[in-house]
Amino acid sequence: MSSHSELTPELASSFARLTLDHLGREWPYKLDQVLNGPEDVRTPAALHPIFHGSFDWHSCVHGWWQVLRLLRWFPDLPEAPQIRARADRMLTAEKVAGELAYLNRPNSGGFERPYGWGWLLALHNEASRHDGPWGAALEPLALAFAARFHGFLPKLTYPIRVGTHFNSAFALSLSRDWACGRDESLVALIDERARAWFGGDAASQAWEPGGDEFLSSALTEALLMSRVEPDFAAWFDRFLPDAAAGQPASIFTPAHVSDRSDGKIAHLDGLNLSRAWCWRAIADRLGREHPVFAPAQDAALRHLTASMDHLADNYMGAHWLASFALLALGGETR
Q1: Distance between CA atoms of 255 and 206, rounded to whole angstroms?
Q2: Is 9-330 CATH 1.50.10?
Q3: In contact, 251 and 216? CB cutoff 8 Å
Q4: What's the N-to-C CA distance of the chain in angstroms?
Q5: Domain extents for the chain?
Q6: What is the structure's pLDDT at 5?
Q7: Is the dihedral of CA 45, 105, 214, 72 positive or negative?
Q8: What is the rounded distance in angstroms from the CA atom of residue 204 to the CA atom of residue 65?
Q9: Which residues of the chain, if any, have pLDDT below 70?
Q10: For residues 307 and 270, what is the distance between their CA atoms, to the nearest angstrom?
Q11: From CA 328, how far away is CA 332, in angstroms rounded?
Q12: According to the model, what pLDDT value does residue 234 have?
């Protein structure tokens, strides 16, 4: 793959091929599971009728999001018939019932919280934009995770700012997009929590990245506030007052990835791609006249260039990075 900065049909096709290869690949697989008894020791496919590929549950979820998004944007892709046929076979009410049964097991309240929750809502949001049964089939699962957000967010006193799966801002950005027009009480809850957690933040030092992070704590917070805060430019100027001068340098500098066969270190390619997504979205929200617009766009391109050639280097990245490349190239809403 070459370091493209725009999503072309050829690049979309390469993403689709890469992801179709691992969506049904059951091994290796990393479970997120509390064993309640010996009956819980089962294969991934028995536990997760849909999301048993792509190394782990959440990567399989956003792999499905990715191929459905590509199908909608590029319906004439050579891979389109395979995507449709596989979706017809896998995204069914019967299989969704199996996923719901897993959620209802004892000690499953924290399953995939909040990263997988947000991505499942993003998948349902995408599936609902297609003609066909996929969105309706996935709706009960989406509603189950929305209900979990309703129960969880009021008691989450403090946001989780780490750049891994537990990050609050990233999951809420995805979830808010799903909730708009569907669940306005969830929109209001997300907005209230975001303002309470982040509204007073100023002069962020952006001490990142950690050695296994794939999200920017600073930029995912800014991304969420770009959706929540009506006067986003004023909030952003307080939060990152020196951004026009390229400071803090940490969030303008692509991460170095020393070993792409190490699953945790390979996260840093995801950091580069997710930062590119955040910088582009933040720049769009600030507008061309804002002094950060040009530095943000430049930072996005440099982060893209650092990692786009490495999506398929090793399965530790190949099972998920194309989804983040798609975010960076096309955004999560279009």
Answers
A1: 14
A2: yes
A3: yes
A4: 24
A5: 9-330
A6: 77
A7: positive
A8: 32
A9: 1-4, 331-334
A10: 8
A11: 9
A12: 98
